[in-house]
């Protein structure tokens, strides 16, 4: 794809915002960092720099399905660092909601798992959570799905969450087997009592151990993205999109990074982030805080972007 030469300045983009009716916004962790949520790959502050101490050959292994299945304690020991502790959303989230409000948002494809797009008011029919989110969690064994909040206490405590439904099933199976065993047995009452007291804690531990591990419905490396991602992109959005804005992502993870190459070459492509990317060429790059860039863009277009973090003028 050849770079489109007619777009060079924020004013050009402001004009594009005026004209465009079907904007794809592709977002990454950078749109939430102003809220104190770390991104993944920023040196020093990103989650992956902080994970050097875990002894993993690659910090991305925290989100590797095989590693999770072998040892879920690794994920559970770091999950609290990325679990959203805030309901607040950033000015950039507000900007995307403003595009929706103006009837210009075709779809927001977000790689973020903090679910703050929903808090900002992006409607489900306008949002693809490409890597899932903490909004729900499922048991890896019995597949039962629960609201994400159910496992938040365990996530915050760094403790592997187990499936309540499995625990119940294991307990019932044990009880049924125990009844069978007891039948026909007799003996000293005191000894029997002692036996049951000592074993109850052990039994409970066994039941928990046998139960499936709960995994937040985040797309790990080694898992397919939700069907809606491909369906929406290839069957609806690709031919409709008239502007692409990528915000706060390093575009290091496929297939999301491939969205850009799939769009028709005449669709203008804009990049807003603190760090430049070298493996993708955009028509315009705005390097800096995305909140600052979108505030300036709205000012140029004449849109009022209201947010508590934006000083009133
Ligand atoms: P990265 O951490 O790879 O990239 C975040 C980008 O945002 C970097 O280029 C930062 O410079 C930039 N950035 C940070 N704060 C910013 C700010 N305030 N304003 C503008 N730019 C800012 O995060 P992603 O690209 O989202 O997967 O990572 C993609 C996927 O990799 C994630 O979804 C995650 C990870 O493995 C899963 O969780 C499954």
Automatic annotation (TrEMBL):
Q: Where does Zn(2+) bind?
A: 139, 142, 163, 166
Keyword tags: Metal-binding, NAD, Transferase, Zinc
Q: Does the keyword NAD apply?
A: yes
The chain positions of domain Deacetylase sirtuin-type read 3-304
The residues annotated as the active site are: 131
Tell me the cofactors it needs: Zn(2+)
Give the protein family: Belongs to the sirtuin family. Class I subfamily.
Output this protein's name. NAD-dependent histone deacetylase sir2
Q: Which organism is it from?
A: Discina gigas
Q: Which gene encodes it?
A: SIR2
Residues shown, of full length: 155 to 467 of 493
